[in-house]
Each structure stands twice: as structure tokens, then as C-alpha cells.
């Protein structure tokens, strides 16, 4: 066999192999495009939310199938199959976006309804104040949590604190513009720095519990004063117990506090 005839035969074989590979790519592209289109064709939600994209996916799939039957049309068939898949994908994504928007709208309506129901069911402010056992002070409305609400020498709340803190959380949820400042205090036994740290941790424990009960964190401030600002004489056990306390100061209706200590 001459070199010229051998080269011609080799070229033909390579061309045939290339055609076979292109044919396989075409068949694979068509199958993928058909599968994607079938996934959206029977989805009524997709048909309603993205009708144009579904139509274009169908049209380009028809073009791909038509070119697949032509000699030398494999590349065009792959191209149109690619377009069909992209239109199918766009239609599916568009339907998901619309569905999410509808869900958000429903949730917003539900929230509005619940907030309205909450406002309608809220007791009068004076009733809430009595429920909290709050009293007027020169720093505003005040609730005092006694030392018995904490384990001895600890910042961990006892179960007996749950009831009063539930009422506090309910009050703040009914009055979302009001805020509270949680102030921790200690007696003078032990190291002053340790007492300051304990007072801060107790204030933080109360604030954390209120937030866990659903109060907006923006409604809660916390501070520890340690041994400062005693309300009783530390010479007696009873006086020290009164000084170991957490005070909760309420803001006015606009969320403003009196001047801090």
C-alpha cells in the first residue's frame, strides 16, 4: 500500500471516530434536554409562573431533535439542546422565586394578624404593673429580684425565678417600645472585685433568661454595680440579703431611661 493511500485511509478512520464521538455527545445532550423539559412540562406551578421560558424550552428542544436527524447537524443539535436545558432551568428557578415570594407574603400576613391579636389581648398598663409588683422610684418603674432567686454565691437562677421572669417577658412583648436595664448588686462580704463580677453575671443571667423567653435583645441592657448603692446596712444578715439583689428599671414609652447611676 502506497504512503498516499495509507494516509487517506487513516484520515478516513480518524474522521469516522470523530463523527462517532460527536454523535455520542449529541445523544447525551438530547437525553439531558428531554429529561429537564419533562421535569417542568407537567409542573402546573412552573407552567403558571414561567410560561415563556417553558415555551422556549420546548421550541429549542424541537430544533435540537430536528437537527439531530440531519447529516452534519450534530453540532447544531447540541447547541439547541443546551439552550433548551437553560430555558428549563430558568423556568424552574423562576417558579421557585415566585413560590418563595408567596410564602413570604403569607408569613407577613400571619405576623400582622398575630401582632394585631397580641395588641388586642394586651391588658392595660396598670394591670401589667400590678402583675409585676413594680413600684415607682426616682429612676422610674422598678422591680426588685431578691437574692433567694439565685443559688448561694452563684449567678445561676433558681426555678423560683421563672414565674417573675415570665411575667417580665410578657410585659416587654406587650410593650415592644419599652426597654429594661437589668442591674446587679452584691453585699460587702468577700473581695470587692469578685462581688463586682458576681453582680455582673447575675444581671447577665437575668437578661439572658428574658431573651430566651422571646424578648428582643435590643430591649435589654445589663450592668453590675458590685457593693455600690446598698439599700440596707451590711452589718446584719438581713441587710446583706437585701443588698444582694437584681433591680430591673423600665424605660418610658419611648424607650428612654432616666439618668444612669
Automatic annotation (TrEMBL):
Entry keywords, A to Z: Coiled coil, Membrane
Coiled coil (UniProt feature): 90-117
Cellular compartments per GO CC: cell outer membrane
One Pfam match: OmpA
Compartmental location: Cell outer membrane
InterPro entries from the UniProt entry: Bact_OuterMem_StrucFunc, DUF4398, OMP_bac, OmpA-like, OmpA-like_sf
Domain OmpA-like: 137-254
Family matches, as PANTHER family: EXPORTED PROTEIN, STATOR ELEMENT OF FLAGELLAR MOTOR COMPLEX
UniProt-recorded name of the protein: Outer membrane protein OmpA-like peptidoglycan-associated protein
Lineage per the UniProt record: Bacteria, Pseudomonadati, Pseudomonadota, Gammaproteobacteria, Pseudomonadales
Amino acid at each position: 500500500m502506497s504512503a498516499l493511500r495509507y494516509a487517506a485511509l487513516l484520515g478516513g478512520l480518524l474522521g469516522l471516530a470523530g463523527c462517532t464521538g460527536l454523535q455520542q455527545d449529541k445523544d447525551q445532550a438530547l437525553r439531558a434536554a428531554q429529561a429537564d423539559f419533562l421535569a417542568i412540562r407537567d409542573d402546573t406551578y412552573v407552567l403558571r409562573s414561567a410560561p415563556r421560558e417553558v415555551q422556549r424550552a420546548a421550541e429549542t428542544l424541537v430544533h435540537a431533535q430536528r437537527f439531530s436527524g440531519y447529516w452534519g447537524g450534530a453540532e447544531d443539535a447540541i447547541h439547541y439542546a443546551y439552550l433548551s436545558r437553560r430555558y428549563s432551568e430558568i423556568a424552574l428557578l423562576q417558579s421557585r422565586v415566585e413560590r418563595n415570594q408567596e410564602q413570604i407574603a403569607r408569613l407577613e400576613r400571619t405576623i400582622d394578624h398575630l401582632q394585631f391579636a397580641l395588641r388586642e389581648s394586651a391588658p392595660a398598663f396598670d394591670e401589667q404593673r400590678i402583675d409585676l409588683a413594680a413600684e415607682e422610684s426616682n429612676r422610674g418603674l422598678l422591680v426588685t429580684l431578691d437574692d433567694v432567686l439565685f443559688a448561694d454565691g452563684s449567678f445561676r437562677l433558681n426555678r423560683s425565678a421563672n414565674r417573675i421572669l415570665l411575667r417580665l417577658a410578657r410585659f416587654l412583648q406587650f410593650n415592644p417600645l419599652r426597654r429594661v436595664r437589668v442591674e446587679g448588686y452584691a453585699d460587702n462580704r468577700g473581695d470587692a472585685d469578685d462581688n463586682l463580677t458576681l453582680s455582673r453575671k447575675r444581671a447577665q443571667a437575668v437578661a439572658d433568661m428574658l431573651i430566651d423567653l422571646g424578648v428582643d435583645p435590643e430591649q435589654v441592657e445589663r450592668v453590675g454595680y458590685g457593693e455600690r448603692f446598698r439599700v440596707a446596712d451590711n452589718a446584719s444578715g438581713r441587710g446583706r440579703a437585701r443588698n444582694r439583689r437584681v433591680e430591673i428599671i423600665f424605660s418610658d414609652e419611648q424607650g428612654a431611661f432616666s439618668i444612669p447611676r
